[in-house]
Amino acid sequence: MPHSPAVEVRGLVKRYDGRAVVDGLDLTASAGRVTAVLGPNGAGKTTTVECCEGLRAPDAGSVRVLGLDPVADGPALRPRVGVMLQDGGLPTGVRAREMLDHVARMYADPVPTDALAARLGLDAFARTTVRRLSGGQRQRLALAVAVVGRPQVLFLDEPSAGMDPQSRLAVWELVRELRDAGAAVVLTTHLMEEAEGLADHVVVVDHGTVIAQGSVADLLASGTGTAVDDDGTLVVRVSADVDPAGLRERLGAGFGVEHRSASSFAVTGPVRPGTVADVTAWLAERDVLVTRLDTGRRTLEDVFLDLTGRSLR
Ligand SMILES: Nc1ncnc2c1ncn2[C@@H]1O[C@H](COP(=O)(O)OP(=O)(O)OP(=O)(O)O)[C@@H](O)[C@H]1O
């Protein structure tokens, strides 16, 4: 089997108004693998993917998809590449199912649309025009349109953004199947859970360039944070919102406590069995139930924040 990468980006530069929003970016994606591109808002992910899709021409560097130039060889690539744009990118006056059937007719060997519509739950809004679809429904239709031609390369820009949990699971299952069938899947996402669950290879982009890459396991192992060997993170999910600030005093010096959401907080520091006991006792005194405890394992989100910092873009 030939092993040239399905997508190969070298030294990509894209400027807007003289500002390089993609600045010497390298990216490789292979057949039969899901490559997830992560990065803060404005990092240059969509611009990079749009250059791969032939929607934007690079200012410098090279982009090859299946060995071809996405701009110059667009007509040759179109039947072999599936694209799901961030805003759906579908014409708004067409009914959902007509849209899918119309696109399917353009391919020699499309996926049967009845089955595809059923598994992505399109039947419930088959006769609704794209304009009237909810955000998540539009995303599901856009995904169906992207995959109906059995693409060898599939670009998904934030595929599950705005989707309910049921749809997200259906999308993940479909992406895994396509990957297992040999497609090269490139997806951008802000969902760390999506990257952890789907990606064979993760590329972290910031300020238009790649700042880290590898498998999820590689990235978790290569933690760049300040944690010393002895330190760990205890992520605590709770049944009721609780301000964990007082817990810091209880745990003493060397511990940090971070409120993450209404139902979770994280304790960082030299986490020991006694620490877990202290945390649960402190919560019990407040009549708050622990619904989940994760110990000792940095998450992809921890790594991502270490790499890209905490300032808003
Ligand atoms: N057509 C355009 N004209 C001018 N600036 C643009 C254009 N398209 C994108 N940009 C800018 O390029 C930068 C990168 O945008 P891009 O959409 O690639 O980021 P992203 O990583 O996909 O971000 P997000 O996570 O928010 O989707 C941003 O600062 C954006 O404002």
Automatic annotation (TrEMBL):
InterPro entries: AAA+_ATPase, ABC_transporter-like_ATP-bd, ABC_transporter-like_CS, ABC_transporter_ATP-binding, P-loop_NTPase
Protein's membrane topology: Peripheral membrane protein
Superkingdom, natural source: Bacteria
Entry GO MF terms: ATP binding
Coiled-coil zones: none
Domain named ABC transporter: residues: 7-232
Keywords on record: Antibiotic resistance, ATP-binding, Nucleotide-binding, Transport
Subcellular location: Cell membrane
Protein name: ABC-2 type transport system ATP-binding protein
Organism: Cellulomonas iranensis
Taxonomic classification: Bacteria, Bacillati, Actinomycetota, Actinomycetes, Micrococcales
